[in-house]
Design brief:
The protein is mostly beta strands. The protein folds into three domains: about 100 residues, Lipocalin (Beta Barrel); about 100 residues, no CATH class; about 110 residues, Lipocalin. It is built from two helices and 26 strands. It has an eight-stranded antiparallel β-sheet, with no helix packed on it. An eight-stranded antiparallel β-sheet has the order 12-11-10-9-16-15-14-13, with no helix packed on it. An eight-stranded antiparallel barrel has the order 17-19-20-21-22-24-25-26. The longest helix has 19 residues. It is elongated. It holds the Pfam family META.
Length: about 350
């Protein structure tokens, strides 16, 4: 009888151990996560036997390059899978594996609830039309910002002079683009619009910003204050970036014209491109200048350059400079902090002014 008791005890112990054994993920899991300003984020994560993982994210109709990351993971006794190399405050760090489904948890390690909760479930089955191929955007100059919890996005269209704000739940407001205001106390720009349907105030602050879900870094922090109808004003915080080739939008000093270096003893010509206004301002070497401009993917078309009428010893250099840019279309490229404008007749190299 005692022998039977020992066997039964051992049997129950083995069953208990097997029931408490946690599942360790292996293989690749796929899903399309919610996205505030795109149809979805294609996400895939692969777990290896040596407790390492690799993940890839691709923002549909928005990404220039797929975001790739590798690191280590562990599995706790309660079955929570943690990507140990990610910061605790960042999202997309913890998962829970149940049968063949991998559930993405929130920053607190809890299941994500709400109408979109099913979008945070990953499976071994690769969805149709699931792609991680990066595609280059071919869009006009603008500014885009997004935020999480709740998901929202903002688009500023400088060409059509509009601002569009919307949330994933469907709340939205479209306003004309108001006049830019620069606050005196911080490095920022502000747009404040009022319409019959509500109000939209956007503050774009030049400061590094990290997306709380993806970990992607942007060059600007954004605060959008929104009032819809008679509702109270509500603040949204997130990250943003200028689209198109906004590197042009700066002050550039001419270093060389067709290989000839500028005289260091005199003030060199310079150009300041303002892509919001589609204008060029600058100094020709003697006179102040301005012109209308139009940009495409990698070229800029400069209209007839207007200059003041001052006389000075450097007029010959100014004439050569203006002849090279006035009513010309030039390709532009960037390398090591320098801008090159080039066509079949001329090559102009500029250095950025900090």
């Amino acid at each position: 009888m005692k022998h039977v008791f020992y066997i039964l005890t051992l049997f129950l112990f083995v069953i208990a151990c097997n029931q408490s054994k946690t599942e360790t993920p292996q293989g690749t899991y796929y899903g399309t996560l919610p996205c505030a300003d795109c149809p979805g984020i294609n996400y895939m994560i692969t777990f290896e036997n040596d407790s390492t993982y690799s993940e890839i994210q691709f923002y549909q109709e928005r990404s220039v390059d797929a975001l790739k990351h590798t690191g280590n993971f562990n599995t706790s006794e309660d079955g929570t899978i943690t990507l140990t190399d990610k910061e605790d405050s960042k999202g997309m760090k913890q998962f829970k594996l149940e049968n063949d489904t991998l559930q993405l948890l929130d920053v607190s390690g809890k299941p994500i609830t709400g109408n979109l909760s099913d979008r945070y479930l990953l499976t071994n089955n690769k969805p149709e039309n699931f792609s991680m191929e990066a595609k280059k955007e071919n869009k006009a100059i603008g500014f885009k910002a997004t935020g999480n919890e709740p998901f929202w996005n903002l688009e500023i269209d400088f060409a059509n002079k509009t601002m569009k704000f919307k949330t994933l739940e469907g709340d939205s407001i479209v306003t004309p683009l108001p006049k830019l205001v620069k606050p005196q106390d911080i490095d920022a720009v502000s747009y404040r619009a009022q319409t019959e349907s509500g109000a939209l105030h956007v503050m774009i602050i030049r400061d590094e910003c990290t997306d709380s879900m993806s970990g992607k870094k942007s060059g600007y922090k954004v605060r959008a204050s929104v009032q819809l109808g008679d509702a109270d004003m509500k603040d949204y915080n997130g990250c943003g970036e200028y689209k198109g080739d906004y590197r042009l939008h700066d002050l550039w000093v001419l270093e060389s014209l067709n290989g000839e270096q500028m005289d260091s003893k005199t003030k060199a010509p310079n150009l300041e491109f303002n892509l919001v206004e589609n204008k060029l301002y600058g100094f020709g070497g003697c006179n102040r200048i301005n012109s209308d401009i139009k940009t495409t993917n990698n070229s800029i078309k400069i209209g007839s350059v207007i200059a003041t009428k001052m006389a000075c010893p450097n007029l010959s250099t100014e004439k050569r400079f203006l002849d090279a840019i006035s009513e010309k279309e030039l390709n532009f490229s960037f390398s090591e902090g320098k801008l090159t404008l080039k066509n079949s007749d001329n090559t102009l190299v500029f250095k950025k002014v900090d």
